[in-house]
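Methods: example folding runs. The two proteins below were folded one after another, and each record is reproduced exactly as written to the output file, sequence line first and structure-token line second.
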Amino acid sequence: MAGGNGRPVVLFLALLAGLWASAARAAEPLVADLSRHLVAITTGFAGTDVLLFGAVEDASRGGDVVVVVRGPNHGEIVRRKARNAGIWINSGLAEVRDAPSFYRVAASKPLAEIAPQAVLERHQIGLEALDLDIHPRDERADSPQYRDALIRLKQRQGLYGDGVQDIGFLGNRLFRTEMHFPANVPVGTYLVEVYLMVDGEVASAQTTPLVVSKIGLGADVFDFAHQQAAAYGIIAILLAAGAGWAAAAIFRK
């Protein structure tokens, strides 16, 4: 049993050692990779973790590592509700253009200790530095209020991180962190950005794609529903009607 449990650890250390050796041979200050580049969403998908690992030239010289995972951008509509005569109704909205559908950050230190705010904003590292294009259609609420509302909504859905995750170091060179993808993770191509920060500036950076995709029967149904919406609607109505007729026939008996 002990040998079986230790095998993943040995494999992980071997991967990290290989990355570090490659970085040393190529004189690269930063090398990183993912445990897998495809998150496959099947019928029973309940979320998963993806391991990011890598190596730096020497973290003891003052360098820090930051990882940003961004999902594909989508337009969003955020609505504000207000109570009117005891009933909650929509009283305003804002259009958010090109908002990341997924956003998480990990770092070896608190972001404020790694780089000044101007540098974080330049690379959109951290929720406070995330640039969101918001257009309110509301006389009683402004862009910052809708921005905060969108972030709270995404956090409740598990799509935006509540804080900055830790990056663990093994020695002064090898590092690792795990990013969680919930069951409702949107499909598309994600960007995993890894930064080596030295003296408050980006010394090296690497971007790795990660694909989140539906596979199997669920993917076929999803594609059919989007490509043949009219036919899918008719089939859904017929199935619902058939199920209702069958249930009525069973109860008559």
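Second run, written to the same file directly after the first:
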Amino acid sequence: MADLADVPVDDLMGELLRRMKCANKPEKRLILVGPPGSGKGTQSPIIKDEFCLCHLATGDMLRAAVAAKTPLGIKAKEAMDKGELVSDDLVVGIIDEAIKKPSCQKGFILDGFPRTVAQAEKLDAMLENQGNKIDKVLNFEIADPVLEERITGRWIHPASGRSYHTKFAPPKTPGVDDVTGEPLIQRKDDNAAVLKSRLDAFHAQTEPVINYYNNKNLVAHLHAEKPPSDVTAEVRSALKS
């Protein structure tokens, strides 16, 4: 643990003010579900800050557990070194560890998990053992053709990370960055063939998860094709209840 005497005063005060602001926030345990490009990455930081939640991405948690050499991280590394998938029980165990941290005191946003009904059942069982449960599942609904137009039109300036879109935010000169005049590139995943494969996997694996939580009356269906500010408004409305 860092010596507080070495932490800058501005950082200490900022954290103190954040904790005071968060003290009266209601607890929220959320799952974000949606296909790639549906806007989860845009909305999750807003939700995290507004409701004082921690953001849990399973891939990041696995890497952190492996790097920290926790008992579960060691087991996960053994599986990965053998080329095996990390078991659902291990992933749920790592989530269990993560949500006990002070940063998750007011709850969490789970992104990328559960992907299957079996994972959802294990997650629910773990939370039930703690006397907790999932409060809301935010389903970022968007039609495949709309998503294809959104994703396959994206172009990136690799040096700066500036992004463009052929329809929604085109560069001044097609194919080149507005600032440097350097060529734009398209990421290898931003093409129709890769997107179709990812969408097929999403529909086959994850849509049953939506149905699972729908049966528990926990799903808020968001219109993810709308502008981000409109989606944010829908999220806020869903989380009032």
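Comment on the second run: The first helix runs from residue 9 to 22.
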